[in-house]
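Quick start: what a row looks like.
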Amino acid sequence: MTFIPVIAATQDHGAVAGLVTILIILLLVATGVALLSRRLRLPYVTGLVLAGLAIADLLPERIGLDSALILNLFLPILLFEAAINTDLSRLRSTVKPVSLLAGPGVILCAGITAIALKFTLGWNWIQVLILGVILAITDTVSVIAVFKEVNVPSRLSTIVEGESLFNDGMALVLFSLILQAHATGSITVADSIQQFLLVIAGGALLGLILGYLSAELFSRSDDPLSGILLTVALALGAFQAAESIHVSGVVTVVVAGLVVGNTGLTRRFSASSRITLYSFWEYAGFGVNTFIFLLIGLEINLTTLWQTLPAVLVAIAAYQVGRLLSVYPLLAILQRFDRPIPLRWQHVLFLGNIKGSLSMALALSLPATLSGRGDLIALVYGTVLLSLIGQGLSLPWLVKQLNISPVPASLQQVEELQAQLITAKAAQDTLDELLKNGILPKAVYEEMRSRYQVQVAKSEKLLREHYNLRSDPGAIEKSDRPKLDAIRRQLLLAEKGALNQALRRRVISDTVGRSQLQKIDEQLLSLEDD
């Protein structure tokens, strides 16, 4: 009995050693791609795909993508990493364009793409609807990688990130409904809408519950290592829990990540612990993306791509038309009840619809009973490859040509002064805490605090002079409106939190407290409507 594990381990030793060898090769290739892409100014993810194509025949054995691995492991990690780094106040300021693009936008794009493919490729409705949904998904990693090379306004970046957070969930729900219709033979519109709303609302509710439970656990400990374990368990566990009760796992993970990132990590978690946790998730997201895009390159067969090239080009044209007819009309409607999105930004939102790993994972997860499954997979693979290479390489140049990146010198100077002020005050707060806890001697405290005070005074003086130079009182509102709105919102939320705490402690009466809370809510609503 005791020899069985040893024998099994001996038999599997060769397979494990081969897998480790491939892993080492991929890590070395990824390192080389990172260095070359920085020197050649190429998008990192596009370089990974090209490298995967180049080394596919050089590896000791063939490896490829696994849809279950992507959907159950890689996707929750990427979603949670993006969610905990998303500031809710920023997301709230762009909730209307994000909701339009990630909701009706996905449905409209998928529908238009499906209709175009139906009349060009001649496939049946189930096939083209599945393809339309798969090609409506935008790979944010590729777009954000471009934004790191070319500076874009923070609001545009927030819209892209926000859309991607909920775009995946919407597409997965539609994908499941279409497969259900294929399996059962029919599904009514009323049933589809009811199930759609139930899956989305159920996922959001479960995410809120799990997020706040985890936030409560964070408030009881300041250990970064246990915090890392908890967030990993939350990201993977939330997805599995949601899938087990048939609600949206994507929405659950996103909502839980937003709650933890904006509530759990801001209570009693120290700055150093937050840095450790954020660094871990940054590395996890980077590592997952690295392997995904390398595997995309390894998975694609160039011979098959050449054979399906005409259909691939038709599919690319179809989803571009779908994206065009969803982005511009919806954002034109948006300006009736929200701040208009500049036309140049709309061009970026249209041109940045790069396809990626989730599209390939959904194609691989198609049931074997679906007619034309092989053709669908080949078409999606070819579309993703050409999208990553063509759009991935051209998007940085197009963004530069649209001239949306330059930051005025005066605004850049203000942001530098604000950064100095924020860091100096944060350091002073930490010094105050160290002195209060008896860790730092008062003489050392006073000397170090005075150094930071010099930096604070200098930054405040220069900022005051900057704003005093403006003769028009409304000039500040025009140039810095988004930033000032975010600050006002943060201050109002702080006021609201203090009032709620006073109400809980019975410091003020319910009548006065509710009246003041209503006034604050009205001010918050006025900021949303501006």
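That is the whole record. Residues 1-11, 471-479 have pLDDT under 50 and may be disordered. The radius of gyration is 26 Å.
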